[in-house]
Structure formats: structure tokens, C-alpha cells
Amino acid sequence: MNHAAPHRPAGLVTRTLAAMLDIGVVLAIMIALYVGWVFMLLLFSPRRFELPVPGALMSTGSAIAIAIIYLATSAAVTGRTVGRVAMGLRIVLPSGRFHRWPLAFARAALCVLCPVGLLWAAVDPQRRSFQDILLRTVVIYDWEPTARDLPG
Length: 152
Known about the structure:
Distance between the termini: 28 Å
Strand order of the largest sheet: 1-2
Pfam family, one: RDD
Strand content: 5-15%
Domain RDD: 10-135
Membrane topology: Multi-pass membrane protein
Number of strands: 2
Transmembrane segments: 20-44, 56-77, 104-123
GO cellular component, one term: plasma membrane
């Protein structure tokens, strides 16, 4: 398989595809949590059970919180999300190391609350998004797993 040169900065299209896959993961987590909520309600009050209808504020707030936690945890632990694994990407510091937790949460919050910042990667010569420039991170092509990615 012909992959992009290792450790070259990733472009807008690849990063957008990875982000779309990650949106799918966040939606799957939300669905799983909703189904769990429904089962708990059914378990504890089967006679008075009604399918819950979450409000717009709760749904939006939950989606934002789940997305930030998912992105931050992925960045801090392996530098990869499900979308980044599928697209052969890793987010690192310029030194090549993974994020620390505070930086990972800051970047995740910026990505979720200001997704349009990704578009800057299309015009930046180094393919950096607004978030990358602000927090000094790099999204690179990296198809090889590291020891931290492997189980056990």
C-alpha cells in the first residue's frame, strides 16, 4: 500500500475525513448512553416507563462534553482517535511526543468549539490548523503503531 511519507504534516482533506469518522464515534457513544439510560429507567420503574426525550440543551451539552473528553483522552494517551487511526494520522508536539492532559483538553475544546479553525490548514504552508498554531501541535502522517498503541 502506498502511504504518504511518514511524519509529514497531514492536509485538510485527510484531517476532515478523520474528523468525520470521529463525529460518528461521538454519535455512537451518545446512542449507547441513551440506550443505557432507557434500560435503567425501564429496570427501576417498569410500570411507569416512558421513553425519555432529552431536550436540545441536554443533547448539545452532552455532545460537546463527550466530544471533548473523547478527543482529549485520545490525544493524551496515544495521539490518535478512531478517525486518525483510520487515516494514518497522529497528533504530536513538535518534539514528537504526545500531549499532556491540560494541552490535550485545551486542544479538544478548541476543536469542538471552533471547528472552522481546521480550514486554516488549507492555506498554511505547514498545514497547521488554527488550533495547531495556537497550541503548537502537529498532525502528522504516521501509519506505524508505537509501543503505547499496542495492547499489554
